[in-house]
Known about the structure:
Layout: E1 4-8, H1 18-35, E2 39-42, H2 56-65, E3 71-78, H3 84-97, E4 102-107, H4 114-119, H5 130-141, E5 162-166, H6 169-178, E6 182-184, H7 193-203, E7 215-223, H8 227-245, H9 265-274, E8 278-281, H10 283-297, E9 302-305, H11 311-325, H12 333-336
Parallel strand pairs: 1-2, 1-9, 2-3, 3-4, 4-5, 5-6, 6-7, 7-8, 7-9
Helix pairs in contact: 1-11, 3-5, 6-7, 8-9, 10-11
Amino acid sequence: xxxxxxxxxxxxxxxxxxxxxxxxxxxxxxxxxxxxxxxxxxxxxxxxxxxxxxxxxxxxxxxxxxxxxxxxxxxxxxxxxxxxxxxxxxxxxxxxxxxxxxxxxxxxxxxxxxxxxxxxxxxxxxxxxxxxxxxxxxxxxxxxxxxxxxxxxxxxxxxxxxxxxxxxxxxxxxxxxxxxxxxxxxxxxxxxxxxxxxxxxxxxxxxxxxxxxxxxxxxxxxxxxxxxxxxxxxxxxxxxxxxxxxxxxxxxxxxxxxxxxxxxxxxxxxxxxxxxxxxxxxxxxxxxxxxxxxxxxxxxxxxxxxxxxxxxxxxxxxxxxxxxxxxxxxxxxxxxxxx
Length: 339
């Protein structure tokens, strides 16, 4: 059985408020816990009306406080936006409140546009210090040394598990160098997935946290009773990606009966290239296509995003996927050589 996890962007749909989105995410987290998902992550984005997870550590506390056993974390914290000390303190606090349940996924991108980065007071060169900031975080989570001038309280000695997230070869190299688990953002940037996994595995150095490599691609998955219904639900995501092509970001839209009326051929090609790692259909269709993806990539775990407009259909998709997941098998070792 292959571990399955959830990436929730806390989407704000048309007709809802961010408060509604946060409550719906808690309902989904409880469903994911009941269905046996391994972890539930939320991501840092800023100045986006359709995403309500900007205060990521606060949202993690909300979700962890409303669940009991599932791991909760960031997918991810955009480290260049923050001081490592502040993140160590925030996640040290979360770990103190919810011991053994907190993950810290770290990304290098700003998670927003240039104007918002300026509003966040982020140095444009901050991303250049990503490896140094990771090392600083690791030191802050270690036991404090006698006479240490700066320590994270809470945080020191808690060794919160860290992940490196990315959508390029750079993140793969960083994860391998530090010996950390690696999540790849193939749910919106799939082009370098295979190459990144190969680099990560070839260069991985064991660490105190991670003895062996652990690769977790993030993908879009929508499951419904029929292929046709799943395809209809998927049109909400397709609209969102077309709007990105149009440089227009907004609330999550309801599904369309005819997506072809929404996009031009150029927009369709661009959006569907970004959505290449999407698995949509009935349980049997998704089981077959997901198993092929696992065999191709050698994924150790799958993280699933499903921005479904209707909350009942969203919960049902994850329930059906959990059943599919029980039939998924890890890749045969021979397949890894071809990744």
